[in-house]
């Protein structure tokens, strides 16, 4: 990253950039979570071996479809698969063998080197909600998302201490043409934040635009040698790889940019109703997808993804934060680790329409499972509401605050001499109290995680202040954060070049809303 | 239990009881949770050995106080401890040795044998909130609890499918004299529910009353040979055992009734600010308390308790559902298992004033830690609000519904042929869907946990119905459950005898409100 920094400095306008750097508010951000705790493994060796054998059996016997993608079929044929129409049957062991060139850990660079993240091993990188067409806040209710909303979410993400990643489509800016909004979204991530971000996947050409904008931001050579985007490639479960998603993956893999290869499954609809059956399908799909990425470019960075919800079999509604979803997350994490791949799952998932108790129960279940299940990249970690239809401003800051719980939990338990606190126990003795003792004085500042949002006040104070619930407190926090937002320093030359790129691209085509 | 059943039948009034049994609504209750999943163990062997060695060191070097209790001091002296004033120093190894006679598993009988619970090993028994002087509901707000509230909570507990235990002081009935309310509380648990319950601990004489009422309910001989109450004995941390709590423990242990021996710790105030230091003190206190129970009656059933919250070091307010509390729970569970004792911790703990998102985040963290940390008896598993000052009607049914999540999670992941679902994957193939396939049809009813409270409706339906949040839905559920409540069948002779006992006891002493 030193290289990129130097390059940017040398191109800077000089005084203006330096002044901006000096006056900019320092935003404190935790780099990423490093787990110093064991993982929770729900499947035993026998179950894992059965699922792995069945996944290979499915690939060989049933196969997967690569739709509208003659190039992919050709690549598979050359690699030794049995291709029949669009169906690709992959002989036992082939996909697993191809996956071996994928790295086990990814360094995703941010334009601010302090925000660069490590994805893999014992890390957990948290990124915000992705994809909702609606937004909600306490004052404005539920409405279609706009670019203004999008920018606000990027600003909130930038100012959230426990959020490591700026994400991608934090909401769909529905007031910008479908064929142009990726440009505005990327520009917002690049200029309003200095955290790492995701690229566009809605068209191969938009993936290419994303790469080109990164070349302006980081330098062309730096992009070819380093990962600067992590993008979300969903598989159309069951076992279908469409040309749009695969086209985007082809662009990213060829450019050494990271892809999350992720089955998107509503259990019972797009996979069997059983946990073991769903895991079998997830593994088969991910093996095929990641193997394909390695056919594009051996060594291309990829993440084993598993986005699985359950379903309310009475209404057909997808459900979130359920025990079955947690079981699948735990199992998928084990399968990913056995492949030596970074793992994406979890999030602040919930089905509730409001940032209420239901939303929080479901989110906390998913957060906990992600931490203990070994997730390395947690998309949707804050702001997700209503089954992903809504990005909620209040829930964004509520969940982002909760990510601090995961950080503290991941620190694990020290048993060094200071942590043993024998002298404190001796000093205080039966019937005393520890508030004033030397050990407490020396350690209390670091001892406990502290929320910046939740209410711990005496009842009377809380009542005098309006008896506010979490949503009301969060609404105030959103307002306060946005009022205090300051754009991170940026080389004016780079910003100008990015703006010019976006303007030119937009001018080159008519608006399309499909 | 067959014996007790026969006894009750033989004493029944005959026709009336049988008619009552025939007409009574059958209430479905899960027996208790049996974990078919591994546990999460946060401490490594080295940390465990250090904490165990330090706890013994503290007992030997610093000791514990048994206050106003010459009998206890005499018992400790006879057992080989070094007694000096009220300070009891316990030589290394002695407390651990004494604990060996405590059983590793407790069968607590309910008057309905179907509700009898097993506490220990892989089980988790859930009991409701204990102790709050206030209640809250959506319509009435926060107010002092009354006996009417108490009875409503017992009824709700009886009707809660995933709640196994009726609990104890589900709220403090402040409209009944302090010296008499235990009689009304026990009568409510015994007559309005048929689930197991807890005895009084606020005076040794009230523990004795509890035993006597159980003798009426179960028969004198049955009570002496079986455990029919699990009662909560708090230790005054740090390391102080008061005469009231120890007096109650003496009564229960002598009568073969179970006690939870539980440090009550606000971390940073009543124990060191570090996790390892707190665990050391918890272990020392529990070793001393359980050893003492075995001095009263070797083999007396006891539970290793750990109620530990953290503290907001700025305001001094206790905080709940924090990562430090979870770490302590996980560690304490490991220490309890190494002693071969049942373990009590966890609950639906939270600091929030309302059943809002904060309450749910904090509750879910504690619920999850309890499940994965090996808790065998979870007091406060539903209804707790505002740091234990308030029993909330809405939160009672919200949390009770969430206990279903823990049941489903604990079932673990099957990998039998049906769960592998290979034929389903073959049948559906790439691009299909599973909703109608044979495997889904055969399995969907049992596949997913289903909330009886949370909202999964389409947005438009939800909006048309009033855009209700979880609290509003819970309020309706409370109303509906109470409206549908039917008293479980009971031998009229037994009920008459219980009423007569309570009336006589109450008449024998003037009201006291201190």
Averaged pLDDT of chain A? 94
Given the helix and strand composition of chain A, which structural class is it?
alpha/beta
Q: What would you call the quaternary organization?
A: homodimer
Structure summary, number of beta strands of chain A: 19
CATH fold title of the domain at 98-411 in chain A: TIM Barrel
Largest interface, chains and sizes = A-B, 118 and 119 residues
Q: How many strands, which pairing sense, and closed or not: the largest β-sheet of chain A?
A: 6 strands, mixed
How would you name the CATH homologous superfamily of the domain at 98-411 in chain A?
Trimethylamine methyltransferase-like
- Report the total helices of chain A: 20
CATH class of the domain at 98-411 in chain A: Alpha Beta
Known CATH architecture of the domain at 98-411 in chain A: Alpha-Beta Barrel
Which word captures the global form of chain A?
A: globular
Strand content of chain A: 5-15%
Question: What's the alpha carbon Rg of chain A, rounded to whole Å?
Answer: 24 Å
List low-confidence stretches of chain A: 1-13
| Helix residue percentage of chain A | 40-55%
């Amino acid at each position: 990253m030193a290289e990129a920094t130097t390059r940017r400095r040398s191109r800077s306008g000089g005084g203006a950039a330096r002044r901006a750097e000096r006056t900019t508010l320092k935003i404190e951000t935790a780099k990423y979570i490093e787990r110093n705790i064991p993982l929770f493994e729900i499947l035993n060796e026998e179950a894992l071996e059965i699922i792995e054998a069945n996944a290979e059996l499915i690939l060989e016997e049933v196969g997967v479809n690569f739709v509208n993608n003659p190039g992919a079929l050709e690549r598979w044929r050359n690699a030794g698969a049995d291709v029949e129409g669009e169906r690709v049957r992959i002989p036992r062991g082939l996909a697993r063998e191809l996956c071996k060139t994928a790295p086990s850990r990814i360094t995703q660079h941010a334009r601010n080197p302090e925000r660069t993240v490590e994805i893999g091993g014992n890390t957990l990188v948290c990124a915000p909600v992705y994809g909702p067409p609606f937004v909600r806040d306490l004052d404005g209710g539920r409405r279609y998302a706009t670019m203004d909303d999008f920018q606000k979410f990027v600003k909130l993400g930038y100012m959230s201490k426990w959020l490591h990643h700026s994400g991608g489509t934090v909401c769909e800016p529905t007031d910008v043409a479908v064929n142009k909004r990726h440009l505005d979204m990327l520009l917002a991530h690049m200029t309003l934040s200095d955290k790492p971000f995701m690229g566009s996947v809605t068209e191969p050409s938009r993936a290419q635009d994303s790469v080109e904008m990164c070349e302006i931001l980081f330098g062309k050579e730096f992009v070819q040698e380093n990962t600067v985007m992590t993008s979300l490639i969903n598989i159309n479960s069951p076992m279908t790889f469409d040309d749009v998603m695969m086209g985007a993956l082809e662009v990213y893999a060829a450019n050494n940019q990271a892809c999350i290869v992720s089955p998107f499954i509503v259990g019972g609809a797009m996979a069997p109703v059983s946990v073991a059956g769903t895991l079998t399908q997830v593994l088969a799909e991910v093996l095929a997808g990641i193997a394909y990425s390695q056919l594009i470019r051996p060594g291309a960075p990829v993440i084993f993804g598993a986005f699985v919800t359950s379903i309310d079999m009475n209404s057909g509604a997808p459900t979130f934060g359920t025990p079955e979803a947690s079981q699948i997350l735990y199992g998928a994490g084990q399968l990913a680790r056995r492949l030596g791949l970074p793992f994406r799952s979890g999030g602040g998932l919930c089905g509730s329409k409001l940032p209420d108790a239901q939303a929080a129960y479901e989110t906390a279940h998913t957060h906990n499972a992600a931490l203990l299940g070994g997730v390395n990249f947690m998309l949707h970690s804050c702001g997700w509401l209503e089954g992903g239809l809504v990005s909620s401003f209040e829930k964004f800051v509520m969940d982002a605050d909760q990510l601090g719980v995961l950080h503290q939990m991941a620190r694990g338990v020290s048993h060094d001499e200071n942590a043993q606190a024998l002298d404190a126990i001796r000093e205080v003795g039966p019937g005393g109290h520890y508030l004033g003792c030397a050990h407490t004085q020396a350690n209390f500042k670091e001892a406990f995680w502290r929320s910046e949002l939740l209410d711990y006040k005496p009842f009377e104070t809380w009542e005098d202040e309006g008896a506010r619930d979490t949503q009301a407190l969060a609404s105030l926090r959103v307002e306060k954060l946005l009022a205090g937002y300051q754009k991170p320093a940026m080389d004016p030359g780079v910003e100008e070049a990015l703006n010019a790129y976006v303007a030119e691209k937009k001018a080159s085509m008519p608006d399309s809303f499909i």
